[in-house]
Please model this.
Amino acid sequence: MPEELYTKKEHQSILLKTFGDSPKLRIIDFFLDNPLFDFTKKEVIEALGMSKQTFYKYFKDIENYGIVKVSRKIGRAKLYKINLENPVVKMLREYETQLSLQIAGQEAEKMGKPVEAK
Model:
C-alpha cells in the first residue's frame, strides 16, 4: 500500500523527523515528496490517512501562504501541486538537501569514507 509511506513512523521523512509530525507539516511534506504530480484534496487525505476535518483545518493556510497552488481543474475538482517558486518551499527543499548531505557525511565518517560536499 503506497499510503504506508505517509502513515508509518519508520517511513517518516527528514523534515518530519526534525520538525515534528504535525498535520500541517505532513501535508506540506506530501506535496514536497511529489513535486511533479498534482492531487485532489481527497487523494491527499487518503494518502495521509488523515481525517477530512484535520485536513481542511490546515490546508487553507497552506494554500493561502502559496505553498501549494491549483494546477488545473477537472470538472468541479481542483488539483493542487507544490509551488516550487514559493520562498518557503525553496527553503524547505534546501534544508532537506543540506540535512541529507550532513547525514550522509556522518554515515561515511562512520565507515571511514570521505564524502564530497556540494
Summary: The radius of gyration is 16 Å. The chain has six helices and two strands.
